[in-house]
Automatic annotation (TrEMBL):
UniProt entry keywords in alphabetical sequence: Membrane, Transmembrane, Transmembrane helix
InterPro entries recorded: MFS_trans_sf
Keyword Transmembrane: yes
Transmembrane segments: 35-54, 74-94, 106-127, 133-150, 162-183, 189-209, 229-250, 262-285, 292-312, 318-337, 349-373, 379-400
Species the sequence originates in: Phenylobacterium montanum
Coiled coil: none
Protein name in the entry: MFS transporter
Amino acid sequence: MTDDADRLPRMPVPPGAEGVEIGELTAAHGADQPLGVVSAAMTVGTVALMILGVQPVVLGALAQAGRVSEAQLGNLATAEVLALAFGSAVGPALMRGGGMRLKAGALSLLLGVANLAIYAVHGVLALDLLRGVAGLIEGLMMGATIIVLIQDRRPDRMNAIFLALSTAPQALMAYLLPVWVTPHFGPEGGFVILAGLSALSAASCLFLADQAPEVAAEGGGKVAWTVPIFAALLAVGLQNAAIGGAWGYMQLLADQHHFPAQAAGIAVSGGLVFQVGGALAVAAWGHRLPYALSLVVGSLCQAGVIALLAVAGTPAAYLAPALGFGLFWLALNPFQVRLLIGLDETRTAATLLTAVTLVGLSLGPSLSALGVAGADVTGAFWIAAGLMAAAAALYSIFALRRAA
């Protein structure tokens, strides 16, 4: 997306792109899109990703009602997240074929049906299949959001705004479901709310463009899958595995040190608020920063924050890095968009960002679990810090190449 993209080995530079920063190059290869189209795409994406913020609550309600055991929750959650990742990988190709408005609308309605089917489906395997299907639908819906945002003149800024706007309702829903919805409407009440949001998504699809926007690119518009592109995607995966690994053990770390319950609550809710703040800050000022160096510095800061969590011995020492963890979580995504578009002007590689992110987040807790010894989860954070440092090392290749 910028000048001679930060990669090894050195790849041909698009004519006239030397020294051009992100705003200028994207202006040539993307276009501002109508507000209605962008708003509709963000609405569809927000509904598609809503499950990520409320999954512990809605699945926890099923466990409390005896429909699944606590041990089975992990498989149920993983099935949906991995299916969502797969769907978001193939969704952009589906939407590029035309009829995006109809496809996204139909998928939204199907998601509503899948959420309401929670009343009719019983048994662990059937529930796994149902939530897997729901995850696939959610991922395919994300295809419309990804296509619209990534083809914008400023895809990094659009992604930052989307992440902030989609996280805020997740936080609100995560609060309202256990304190109001579940007590009044039962353990399936959360899925009814999700079905209602699916209907809202379907209505918003009326404002989508029917044909996905196209981006002019060199080389006939076909991506060349180079080693640097795979290295960048691996770095994104490692970074998100570190995030998922640390986040998954945040509550258990507080329990291990016998911190007050309020400490863990503030760490989670405050972390969500800081996520929104970090994403909005990058949306406003991120274009002024060099993306490769920002990824290196940001990843090292994340590694440091995770290490501080590992050695936290007091509630205050736990809360400060926990909030910092949230600040960096979403803030680096726009820089990842810039890196991938810099490596591939067709923006095909950038459309895989959501899928790679979700895979990393879902695998992270399993990798960090290798460091858990009985009730001591400290090792999980050291593994997460190591994964983050590995991501920083990969990003540094692009930063060094850019500085050369």
